[in-house]
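Researcher: For the annotation table, I need structure tokens for Phosphatidylglycerophosphate synthase. Please keep the output clean. Sequence:
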Amino acid sequence: MIDPLLTPVTRQLLHAPAGWLIRRNINADQVTLGGFFVGLLALPALAWEYYTLALLFILLNRLADGLDGAVARQTRLTDAGGYLDIVLDFMFYNAVVLGFLIADVSQNAIAAGVLMLTFTGTGSTFLAFAGVAAKRGIDNVSYPNKSLHYMGGLTEGFETIVAFIAFCVWPQHFATLAYVFAAACWITAITRLWSGYRTLKMTDKH
């Protein structure tokens, strides 16, 4: 929801670190892949209930998620890189939830399943519209530098990070927190579905 407000700030902060990586011949795709594999380490850490360690891996993954875009903007933005980034992001999100499920199956399983289903809703509405929008040449006014047509919503990158931090800080309340975040994500999915459908119906008339 507040990603557009934070983007100019994070871009300024990440400009210098991105330049440092570029000078060492590290490209955006390498940052994306490195961040993904570091983020996956959160899964076993969560499963073994090392929540502070898991949070470190999660934050490193999110840092890499910002850095890959910063590196790409200073070198070359590519559709392949954007595709890789968004696919691995959704895989990472579900891996984190799976970690909490394994940590306490009896308490977390249903809430984790609901949240994974919710991520399917937010992800599918986002990606399906992006594909059709690209086909029809619909401008991405709010996020002009994104490789894919990015649809905003109540829960975006910042809100997801906050939720994951809360999960790790209060793991004993994961189920309650997951249901609250899932409800917010469903608002995002429904508004994206309606907005996307309405936009495409309008372009159908032309």
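Researcher: And a one-line annotation?
Model: The chain has one domain: 3-204.
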